[in-house]
Each structure stands twice: as structure tokens, then as C-alpha cells.
Design goal:
six-stranded antiparallel beta sheet, single chain, alpha+beta
């Protein structure tokens, strides 16, 4: 199941794939909701590209001989790549496609298990708090990310706040975009 609950503005006869790719607005979220992405296998190319982009060529990531002598016995994928994968999986889930305004930050990010080449991970996104803004056009969501590996272990977890449009805010935004 991709998400718990169908937002009230959707027809309950919609199929699951349509539900998972429809934007949710502030009023559609409730604390306790959980949204789940599909899986993604971390590849050698992912590790190499992230090393190139970040400039982090630490031997634990880049040197198979060195990494083979560590407790992991192989190269470890950058922890920050796990964060990037989580944010990409948010797009794949689709619930913020038309409603997100801005991510406000990441907090309390924990690397609990190593990410290794060949691991298949998915995101569980937990809604922990919903707070309406003063204008009525947007509000703040607090979310808990769980990046889960193929063994069902939480490899990474952390919190993030995001500003999201309300239905009224989306309507006003669409009206403002119409040609006069």
C-alpha cells in the first residue's frame, strides 16, 4: 500500500497508482499517516557519481582493498546519498507533486546501518504533525523519514519540516497564474 487514506478531494473509486501520484494538500494530511515508496537498488554507479558530485573520495567509499579490511568488508555508500535517495523517493510517491512550497530543513538524521552497493531500499514517510498557517494558504508538516533496507532494517532516519499549500492556497495560485 502506497499510502494510508485517500484525500477527501479524490474519488474513492480511483485506483491505487492514481492515489499514489496525486498531490495531497495540507488538509489531506493527518498525524499517523504513513506513505511507502517502491524499492530502489543502490548501484556502483550511484556510489561513483556521488563521489564525483560531492568530492568525497574517502577510502571507505572509493578503495575496495582498503574497505575490504574494515568491519563492513566492502565499500560503504555515502550516508548523504541516503538522504538524497529519500528526497528522490518523495517525488516517486507523488504526494507533494503540486503542493510543496519548500523544505525547511533536516533534523536529527541518524545513520543506523551502512548502505552498501546492492542494497535495495525504500522510504517510509510518517506524518508526525500538521500545523495550519495564519494566512490559510499554507501550513507546515513535520515528517519522519525511515530509509529501510531489504532486510527490513531502518538504515537511516531523520525528521524534516515542509511548507505545503492548502486547497485554498492552490486555488488562489492557479487563479493568479491565469491570463487576465
Amino acid at each position: 500500500m502506497r499510502g494510508v487514506g485517500i484525500p477527501p478531494h479524490q474519488n474513492n473509486e480511483s485506483n491505487e497508482s492514481e492515489n499514489s501520484m496525486s498531490s495531497y494538500y495540507l488538509e489531506d494530511f493527518k498525524p499517523g499517516q504513513v506513505f511507502v515508496s517502491s524499492g530502489r537498488t543502490i548501484t556502483e554507479a550511484d556510489l561513483t557519481f556521488f563521489s564525483m558530485i560531492s568530492g568525497d573520495w574517502n577510502p571507505i567509499h572509493a578503495d575496495a582493498e582498503f574497505a575490504g579490511q574494515t568491519r563492513y568488508q566492502q565499500r560503504v555508500v555515502h550516508g548523504a546519498l541516503g538522504i538524497a535517495i529519500c528526497t528522490g523517493m518523495l517525488h516517486q510517491i507523488g504526494i507533494f507533486e503540486k503542493s510543496v512550497i519548500a523544505m525547511l530543513g533536516l533534523r536529527n538524521w541518524n545513520f543506523l546501518k551502512p548502505l552498501l552497493i546492492g542494497d535495495t531500499v525504500h522510504l517510509e514517510l510518517h506524518i508526525t504533525s500538521v500545523e495550519a498557517g495564519k494566512s490559510g494558504r499554507s501550513g507546515k508538516l513535520e515528517r519522519r523519514f525511515h530509509l529501510i533496507n531489504q532486510r527490513g532494517e531502518i538504515a537511516q532516519e531523520g525528521d524534516s519540516e515542509v511548507l505545503v499549500l492548502t486547497h485554498e492556497g492552490a486555488r488562489r495560485q492557479a487563479d493568479a497564474a491565469k491570463p487576465a
